[in-house]
Design brief:
Helix content: 10-25%
Number of domains: 1
Order of helices and strands: EEEEHE
Strand content: 15-25%
Distance between the termini: 9 Å
Strand order of the largest sheet: 3-5-4
Shape: elongated
Largest sheet: 3 strands, mixed
Number of helices: 1
Radius of gyration: 17 Å
Number of strands: 5
Length: 86
């Protein structure tokens, strides 16, 4: 795992396997300021002023991670060769 990609402390690239092809999946995640909210129908921040999710992009990261793990399993099973990057 390489951390601090492009000078961004929270950015990283995790790689598995070797050689070609190299397949990369974007594990986008975000946290928007001021959106901390308990799962209730009225305003009730989990952490006042804290960050939270409001657009669904947090789900993209989980889906891409699941895909990367599926490719890792396929590589481990000998069903192909190459490198997966998340």
């Amino acid at each position: 795992m390489e951390r601090g990609i492009a000078g961004i402390p929270a950015a990283f690239v995790a790689s598995y396997g070797s050689g070609s092809p190299v397949i990369a999946l974007l594990g986008e995640y975000d946290a928007l300021p001021g959106l901390s909210q308990a799962v209730v129908s009225h305003k009730q921040p989990v952490e006042p002023g804290g960050a939270g999710h409001g657009c669904g992009h947090n789900l993209l990261g989980v889906g891409a991670l699941a895909a990367a793990l599926a490719v890792q399993a396929a590589l481990d099973a000998g069903e192909g060769q190459g490198t997966i990057r998340y």
